[in-house]
Design goal:
Helix 1 (46-55) packs across helix 2 (69-95). This protein is flat. The chain folds into three domains: 1-108 and 118-131, no CATH class; 143-211, no CATH class; 229-313. Residues 1-7 and 99-137 have low confidence and may be disordered. Strand 4 and strand 5 form a beta hairpin. It has 314 residues and is of the alpha+beta class. The N and C termini lie far apart (68 Å). It contains ten helices and eleven strands. The chain has helices at 46-55, 69-95, 153-156, 160-177, 189-199, 208-212, 214-227, 230-237, 280-294, 308-313, and strands spanning 2-4, 10-11, 23-26, 33-35, 40-42, 103-104, 122-123, 239-247, 253-261, 264-272, 299-303. Pfam families: DUF659. Residues 206-314 form the DUF659 domain. This is DUF659 domain-containing protein. InterPro entries: DUF659.
């Protein structure tokens, strides 16, 4: 199935798939690829088979023995991601009454994978919702801090004193900035250190202006793009709008509005209710604004508190 290809002419990659950083297209043979780590010539299967070679997936190809740990992990993540995306598409097709799902792989190659192999696919036709493709720094490096993960050589050789001093450096910043202790429970806490260490010594932390400027705008855009994926689900399945009264840290009343659908729950907006009279007319005006924001055609139910004024407004 394979042979050495050091003398075979190559052509440019045909997509921006991350796997092309580790392989080349064989000139004149659209489905043949070359692994740049071991010069293996893979006949057929295109980028999918190259990923399997790099990831060490057995059944179709012999795993590349020269692939670095981080590259192997990244390729496994890509293959698993495509498999999950395909499963979601098939489930969605069944749910909306279209049992037949047509799939093609990354480069429309005709490739049959074994049961133990991972399928990578793209579905033709109209798709109601597509998972957001966000490039994360952590996705390019294998985890070093989870149980069973492979630590880096440098971290494995660090002394207890070095580790303790590093933790103290984090603690000094933490206490000086007066960050709440539950901040350590954030799912982004450890990935922050993993990403910084992946860059290496000399990494400059974001400045005050970076945090309040371009980085904030980038993340706002990222979240907005993610939330845009909810609206097609509202249109397809309908949604529930929920209002929830709270008090902020200054004990001032606010009303939060959330929207629930099969994809999940998203925060919609918050209303400052300080100084407002919570009678039926006032609440109706607020609720109507929220309903129009979501679209009344999509709303299955509107859930509020059980006070008399809320019931009247409903």
């Amino acid at each position: 199935m394979t042979d050495n290809s050091s003398s075979i002419a190559s052509a440019p990659a045909r997509s921006d798939d991350p796997a092309w950083a580790h392989g080349k297209v064989v000139a004149g043979k659209r489905n043949n690829t070359i692994c740049i780590h071991c010069d293996k010539h893979l006949k057929g299967g295109g980028i999918t088979r190259l990923k399997m070679d790099l990831a060490g997936v057995t059944g179709q190809v012999e795993a590349c023995k020269k692939t670095l740990h981080d590259v192997r992990w990244q390729m496994k993540q890509l293959l698993e991601g495509y498999q999950k995306a395909k499963a979601r598409k098939e489930k969605l097709n069944v749910n909306i009454g279209h049992g037949n799902c047509v799939d093609v792989d990354d480069d429309s190659e005709d490739i049959a994978l074994s049961a133990d192999s991972v399928n990578a696919g793209k579905q033709k036709g109209k798709e109601v919702a597509v998972a957001s493709k966000r490039k994360k720094v952590s996705s390019f490096f294998a985890p070093r801090t989870t149980p069973g993960s492979q630590p880096s050589i440098k971290s494995a050789m660090a002394t207890k004193e070095m580790v303790d001093n590093t933790k103290l450096a984090v603690a000094r910043w933490w206490y000086d900035a007066n960050v709440p202790f539950n901040g350590a429970h954030s799912k982004y806490y450890q990935p922050m250190f993993d990403a910084a260490l992946a860059v290496g010594p000399g990494f400059k932390a974001p400045s005050f202006h970076n945090l309040r400027g371009n980085l904030l705008r980038t993340l706002v855009d990222e979240i907005s793009t993610y939330l845009d994926k909810f609206r097609p689900i509202w249109e397809l399945y309908g949604c529930s709008v929920m209002s929830d009264g709270w008090s902020n840290r200054r004990q001032e009343p606010v009303i939060n509005f959330l929207v629930y659908c099969p994809k999940g729950t998203m925060f919609l907006k918050s209303i400052d209710a300080f100084g407002l009279t919570k009678d039926a007319d006032t609440l109706y005006g607020i609720f109507n604004e929220v309903v129009q924001l979501v679209d009344p055609n999509y709303i299955v139910q509107f859930i509020t508190d059980n006070e008399a004024a809320y019931k009247a407004a409903g």
